[in-house]
Amino acid sequence: MQLICSTYHRVRVAPDRRRLACPALACALAGIALWPSGAGASTLVVQGAGDGHGVGMSQDGALGYARHGWSDSAILAHYYTGTTLGQAPPKSVVRVLVGARVARIPLERYVRGVVSAEMPASWPLAALEAQAIASRTYALTAHAGGSRFDVYSDTRSQVYMGVAAETAQTNAAVAATSGQIVLYAGQPATTYFFASSGGMTENIESAFVGSMPQPWLRGVADPFDSGPSASWALSMSFASAATRLKGLLKGSFRGIEVLSRGASPRIVAAQVLGSRGRTAVSGPALAARLGLASTWAYFSVRSGSRVRREPDRSGHAGVPPPPSPGTPVPAMGRQGGEPAPGAPVTAATTGGAAAQ
Questions:
Q1: Going by C-beta distance under 8 Å and a sequence separation of 6 or more, which residues neighbour residue 276?
Q2: How far is it, in rounded angstroms, from Cα 203 to Cα 345?
Q3: How would you classify the pairing of strands 193-194 and 57-58?
Q4: What's the burial of 119, exposed, middle or buried (CB within 10 Å: 0-12/13-18/19+)?
Q5: Which residues pair with 95 in a beta bridge?
Q6: Residue 346 Cα distances to 28, 143, 349, 350, angstroms
Q7: Kind and range of the H or E element at 103?
Q8: Helices (H), the chain
Q9: Residues 294/50, Cβ–Cβ less than 8 Å
Q10: Under 8 Å CB-to-CB from 80, ≥6 apart: which residues?
Q11: What's the whole-model pTM score?
């Protein structure tokens, strides 16, 4: 299971399910303490929710819905608003960049090597099937390498580990959904996914800087996402925060002011406060610098026994509680990655490079 993001990312790979995917991020996390931390100089305290960019399908949320009896089609219709299921073009081939080589892999074989890397095989079949369909659709719509290749084999697209990673359970999920893809208005719809929503997903334009709104990638409630990252907290010294924010900080570090949030409410824009002025920063860039699991974050400053909430102009009053397993489920109606900065996201056609 994974979060795919060009600015900050984590990856979950079965069976150990969670590891840091970026050496730079691992370094950035050094010096961050889980809440609470000891007394001393001023400390930046962060309370947050979720793990990942927040767009599309939450994998922990899909697990929750599957455990509550939802089918793969109902799970996908919930996360990708207004979509239906259709069929991929026959004999589709995915061009996968593996190291320096581009491998041409039949679509179904490729998906078998992805689902086993993206979700634990022990998860309910409906969750594995939803992942198979999302991964299959993502492979046909990503076009990460333009005319050269379609997807990376790692977290820049979605993790592909080949035959060696396949399991009987994940292969059964791929076989049960053979050829199925997600459609919006009759065309394949880019199916982003990530690890944990914290209780709500996000509109694409609020999560991916420069992206245009897309009708199937809207924030939706996610009450059964109750995984280990549904809510979290950490703290770091002002000195540690200043080191991470080098290049954005004017003078000595004083704190962070949030300017706007999305629907979930993940941070869209903020300011780094310094003794010599303020510096604007996007939510994803701020999360990457501070080593946060997601942009759904609220900031406070602790000095001794005193805790001061940082300024927040977004209109969101406080930190929402994590979702409860008893929260009513929305009525059943009707990873992958992130677009390059500034690139529009559109429904792809079946005549794209992956359709051979």
A1: 250, 251
A2: 12
A3: parallel
A4: buried
A5: 104
A6: 34, 12, 9, 13
A7: strand 101-106
A8: 23-28, 59-67, 72-79, 107-118, 125-141, 168-176, 204-207, 238-244, 283-290
A9: yes
A10: 56, 57, 182, 184, 189, 191, 216, 217
A11: 0.82
Contact 209, 282 (CB under 8 A): yes
Residue 221's beta-bridge partner residues? 200
One-letter identity of residue 56: G
- The residues near 204 (Cβ < 8 Å, ≥ 6 apart) are 55, 192, 211, 212, 213, 214, 217, 345
Q: What is the pLDDT along the chain (356 residues), one digit of tens a residue?
A: 433 433 334 444 443 333 333 333 333 344 444 444 344 489 999 999 999 999 999 999 999 999 999 999 999 999 999 999 999 999 999 999 999 999 999 999 999 999 999 999 999 999 999 999 999 999 999 999 999 999 999 989 999 999 999 999 999 999 999 999 999 999 999 999 999 999 999 999 999 989 999 999 999 999 999 989 999 999 999 999 999 999 999 999 999 999 999 999 999 999 999 999 999 999 999 999 999 999 999 999 999 989 999 999 988 765 544 444 444 443 333 245 655 433 444 333 223 222 22
Say if residue 117 is exposed, middle or buried (CB neighbours under 10 Å; 0-12, 13-18, 19+): buried
Q: For 273, left (φ over 0), alpha (ψ -120 to 50), or beta?
A: beta
In one letter, which amino acid is 162? G
Collapsing DSSP states into helix, strand and coil, what is residue 294?
A: coil
Q: Which residues lie closer than 8 Å to 285 by C-beta, 6 or more apart? A: 7, 209
